[in-house]
Amino acid sequence: MSATTRDHSYKVVFFYTAVTLLAVIWFAPIIMLLFTALKTSGDFAINGALAVPQSIEWSNFSEAWDTGVKNYFLNSLIITVIKVPLGVTIEAMAAFALTHMNFRWAGKVFPFILIGLIVPIQMALVPLTLLMNFLNLIDTRTGLTLLYLGFGVPFGVLVMRGFFRTIPSALIEAAKIDGCSYLRMFFQIALPLALPAVLSLCILDGVATWNEFILAQIFLRSDELRTLPLGLVNFSTQFSTEYTLLAAAVLIALAPLVLVFIFFQRYFVSGMAGAVK
Amino acid sequence: MNAGEKAPLVGAGQASPARQDWSWLLPWAFLAPALLIYVVVVVYPMAYSGYLSFFKWDGVAPTKQFVGLQNYFTLLFNDKVFWTALLNNAIWLVAALLIPTSIGLGLALLLNKGFRGSSIYRSVFYFPAILSLAVVGLIWNWIYLPDIGLINQLLGGLGLQSLQHNWLSDPNLALYAVMVAAAWNAAGLPMLLFLAGLQTINPEILEAAQVDGAGPVRRFLSITFPLLRETTLIVLAITAINSLKVYDIIYAMTYGGPANSTQVLSTWMYFLTYNYNSVGQGTAIAVILFLLTLIFAIPYIRMMGRE
């Protein structure tokens, strides 16, 4: 009896050691980033990236923030905060029409929308440049937000449709018989029931918007309008050897993602699962 | 519905015309905002790119010259970088289908057991997946630095100086170095999807097999993996589509270099269009990229669009 328990506990210890080792290796780039950001540049030059900082140096963060990251951060924040709720609302409305409004064309319109999921953005770049030029929207947040709205439609509709399909149609039919209008059904029945899906979509879409690179790179020209991913790439060429500053800048960019990830982790899973169901 | 069916019996339906005539518009009204912006931003530009690929144009001149398929012929027969890019896309595709997906499956099997603390490990392994590829590229640029980069320092510390390289400046290594960085980011999604797939497998089946004497490898090959078939197909389709789109990380890490050795179709499209003002050839690449994507996407869209 005691032999088997001991046998078992050896296994447990071995298992945890192996998994922890794997996790540390996997996480090493982030640990390196954190250690670098907390070092003085002298400490970094002498001891390298992976050594534990000799003294905790918060000034890298404030310096990075003041030398441009603040602007990039605010730009990303403004675009994300406007794009995500607007996008999710129109995507949910579209998905509702495709699932609960006896819409005869649903079987045609849905695949048509799904095409957008696979189109490489490159396929649209040149005509979009012409269009944005024509509308005077090059190098504006409004223009970029409109592009994000358009490219977000396929994924959003896919996720919301996946969820709305699970709402029993009897529920909607009952509301219809009670004389409820579609608009009220959408806002008072479908949307509240779909709250978990809406949250998942908001988070996935928020992360995607926060991280978007290619459209921002093509359609934003001036430094004051740059979003974070674009700004950081620029920042890294400008301060190419000031690694402690750069690491702090990257960590500032990651901070909101980390917070969202910690508090809403389960929605990542349910959102992705909703997208493939 | 009932009112609509009864109306003709009552006679010509005096009460219903208004409702009957306009109700078909309602779904379209709900669809309108999303559909409108989608068509303007995605569909119309796509079609217009296809049209532009038959013209010789620098992007600014008022007139475009129709040249038929010449842009495609130029790419296929006169552009070595195009072939490098195509080959790199193919290498990337195969590597992406094999490596991050296998890592994701392995991690999912490891973490599915629900041991104490497994959710923390799950977060750690998923975390790189939420980073933007541009940022992943920046982080790995430092890891690959020749003098103070993590990898060369580790190799030096282990006494393996002979293995130290200038990873991103070596045309033979740069693409693979970028792939490693991309795999770090790309393993999270398959892990998540496989974990979700594993949840749907009834543990009793596995227990029964174990009672019947099937070992862990046998149980995986004969039960778990076949039951993950649908998840696997979805993972492979998404991976294939994403790997053809690869752009940010190459832009951030090598900018297509050294000597165009890490160009892929999407980056080469960008350089041709915006740096060399060759809009016709750029859009022709975009069309080729789209057609390649379709090969993997059509089965995927069928699967997603099924009722």
Distinctive features:
heterodimer, A: 277 residues, mainly alpha, MetI-like fold, 2 domains, 13 helices, 81% helix, B: 307 residues
Write the layout of secondary structure elements.
The complex is a heterodimer of chains A (277) and B (307).
Chain A: H1 2-37, H2 41-47, H3 59-100, H4 106-118, H5 122-134, H6 141-164, H7 169-177, H8 182-193, H9 195-211, H10 214-219, H11 228-238, H12 243-263, H13 265-276
Helix pairs in contact in A: 1-12, 3-6, 3-9, 3-11, 3-12, 4-6, 6-9, 6-13, 9-13, 11-12
Chain B: H1 2-10, H2 17-22, H3 25-52, E1 55-56, E2 65-66, H4 70-78, H5 80-111, H6 118-126, H7 133-143, H8 150-157, H9 174-186, H10 188-199, H11 203-211, H12 216-227, H13 229-244, H14 248-253, H15 265-275, H16 279-305
Antiparallel strand pairs in B: 1-2
Produce a short descriptive summary:
By secondary structure, chain A is mostly helical. Helices cover 81% and strands 0% of the residues of chain A. Chain A folds into 2 domains: 2-47; 67-276, Orthogonal Bundle (MetI-like fold), CATH 1.10.3720.10.
**Name of the CATH homologous superfamily of the largest domain in chain A:** MetI-like
How many separate helices of chain A?
13
* Top CATH class of the largest domain in chain A: Mainly Alpha
Strand order of the largest sheet of chain B: 1-2
The CATH topology name of the largest domain in chain B reads MetI-like fold
Overall, the morphology of chain A is: globular
Q: How many domains of chain B?
A: 2
Describe the 3D structure.
The complex is a heterodimer of chains A (277) and B (307). In chain A, helix 6 (141-164) runs antiparallel to helix 9. Chain A folds into two domains: 2-47; 67-276, MetI-like (MetI-like fold). With 277 residues, chain A is mostly helical. The mean pLDDT of chain A is 88. Chain A has 13 helices and no strands. Chain A has helices spanning 2-37, 41-47, 59-100, 106-118, 122-134, 141-164, 169-177, 182-193, 195-211, 214-219, 228-238, 243-263, 265-276. Chain B is an all-alpha fold and 307 residues long. In chain B, strand 1 and strand 2 form a beta hairpin. Chain B has helices at 2-10, 17-22, 25-52, 70-78, 80-111, 118-126, 133-143, 150-157, 174-186, 188-199, 203-211, 216-227, 229-244, 248-253, 265-275, 279-305; strands spanning 55-56, 65-66. Chain B folds into two domains: 2-52, no CATH class; 70-305, Orthogonal Bundle (MetI-like fold), CATH 1.10.3720. In chain B, 71% of the residues lie in helices and 1% in strands. In chain B, 41% of the residues are buried. In chain B, strands 1-2 form a two-stranded antiparallel ribbon. Chain B is built from 16 helices and two strands. Mean pLDDT of chain B is 87; it is low at 1-15. At the A-B interface, helix 1, helix 3, helix 4, helix 5 and helix 6 of A face helix 3, helix 6, helix 7, helix 10 and helix 13 of B.
